[in-house]
Design goal:
The protein is about 0% helix and about 60% strand. It has a twelve-stranded antiparallel β-sheet with strand order 1-2-3-5-6-7-8-9-10-11-12-14, with no helix packed on it. Strands 4-13 form a two-stranded antiparallel sheet. Strand 5 and strand 6 form a beta hairpin. It is globular and about 65 Å long.
């Protein structure tokens, strides 16, 4: 499918003309490729960030269609309370974006995204996950920013295993590039039934851990977090 746009304008005695194209291709039911050329992101209503004071970085939901496409394939499952390793809001705009995501087999899924701003930067996010069974999976992801004034790479290994009502999630992230070189470790035990959900998390985020295309909620933090909910 092709979705072109043409946007003429007039301001202060000068005419302008913008155009772009969105492309979507589905080679098979479980695999999708999309591309966006010169997108008009100004027509998308942005989520409003709360002005309430907080010691921690704030997460603002994504509403831009290109980044919403296949977002579940890029590793943001919401389990890590210390960091989100890929946070698309850190990419304000781009000239060309491409993305491929889906299932390579019934047990293997992946996502690959690249955006280019010709004058300044290139951003890439990729992830792969293998399902060992209905209750166990593991994967890795790589997020990279390359810009005129910045470069940063984050690599992540993660796994999730469930034993009845108990689930164990772990991930290890390493970072390199400008002002980087640290790591972030995350272990989480989750017990959930119909009425009670309890999460015990241990996080270890070193001072030099930096995710330029991510969001680190607890920088330079080491310790446990316990949360329990009753509904």
């Amino acid at each position: 499918s092709l979705l072109p746009y043409l946007l003429p304008g007039y301001q202060d005695g000068a005419y302008s003309l913008r155009s772009g194209l969105d492309v979507r291709y589905t080679p098979k039911p479980d695999l999708t490729a999309v591309a966006s050329i010169n997108p008009d992101l100004g027509t998308v209503e942005g989520a409003i960030q709360s002005i309430q004071f907080s010691r921690f970085a704030k997460f603002v939901p994504e509403r831009r269609p290109f980044f919403l496409e296949g977002q579940d394939y890029f590793g943001n499952d919401g389990n890590n309370v210390a960091a989100v390793y890929f946070y698309s809001q850190n990419i304000p705009q781009f000239d060309l974006g491409t993305k491929v995501y889906g299932k390579l087999s019934p047990k293997d899924s992946f996502g690959l995204m690249n955006t280019v701003s010709f004058a300044s930067r290139n951003d890439t996010a990729t992830s792969y996950r293998h399902q060992f069974s209905d209750t166990s999976s593991a994967g890795f992801s790589l997020v990279q920013k390359s810009a005129n004034d910045d470069n940063n790479t984050v690599g992540v290994l993660n796994q999730s295993t469930r034993y009845g009502k108990l689930r164990v999630d772990t991930d290890l992230a390493l970072t390199s590039g400008r002002d980087s070189g640290g790591d972030a470790k995350h272990v989480q035990l989750v017990y959930a039934d119909k009425l009670v959900r309890t999460e015990l998390t241990y996080n270890d985020v070193t001072p030099r851990f930096r995710a330029a295309d991510g969001l680190v909620f607890l920088p330079d933090y080491r310790g446990p977090i316990l949360v329990s909910n009753y509904n």
